[in-house]
Design brief:
The chain is of the alpha+beta class. 32% of the residues lie in helices and 23% in strands.
Amino acid sequence: MSSNSEPTSFEVQDSIPIIDYSLLTSSSANERSKAVQDIGKACEDWGCFMLVNHGVPETLIQEMMDVSDEFFNMTNKEKLEFEAHGVLDPVRCSTGVNLVNRNKDTFWREYLRLIVHPGFNCPHKPPHFSELASDYVKRTRAVAMELVKGVSESLGFEASYMNHELNLDAGFQLLAINYYPSLLAEFDVSRGLMPHTDQGLLTLLNENGVPGLEVLHNGKWIGMGGVPNAFSIICADHLEIFSNGKYKSKLHRAVMKDERKRITLVNTNGPSLDTIIGPSSWLVDRDNRPPRYLPMKYSDYLEFQIRVITAGKHPFDEIKIHI
């Protein structure tokens, strides 16, 4: 965009919408209103967008990438101190290797998943990891909660409505760090992540400059990312459920075509674990459309999601009401 053109919160680059966060937080009512309108359009038409001018320092993001790299370069013995067990374990790590059959999974990655809200959890090593991660998740949570206000207004609610209805002050926030190693000669397993949707309302994703994220749009896989110092924002399952299908949860995947290692910082943001989520009764009444999803407690959904994915299904196969 040229320097003398009017500012806008909604642009198109490679067909992916771009939202300017600074307009959403602007003191100008017109700029905020335009940002809210464009967030709604992006959520409805695409289910995702790129977020620029978000205010999270580039230096902090780079430090998080570096310390994450340090974590995954520890020995397997050190990493297995944080081995994954239950879905609600505060800290979960997986080396991504099946010791019986290394080639069993089509795609391979390592991951570290941390429950970071309402309580903060992090490995005690490498040095400064916990300090950096704490700062990072506080800043990204603030961005996510401001986006939820915009989403709430775009649906016709007050800005604070979704926060109140879904008890977001005690909301469940996860930081997932994914590590796809560089393509070495002896590495004979495909790197990537199968197509999936996320739990929660909105996912904030940052990458280390190595592409791989793709979203399904109009039947085609489209690369997402590549915008300097931007977050990829992806609509998740409970935004679709709460909006009664107006905003769709976005199917996405990781496909590694680059030989370099890829690191992603992924924040999922949802309601409190004991909140029962179903379609908003206000939207159902306003739009005169019956509920399209069965309500379910959020903690139950997280456990349920693992079971149905393991069975090769999507949770919506079970909770979506076909009318």
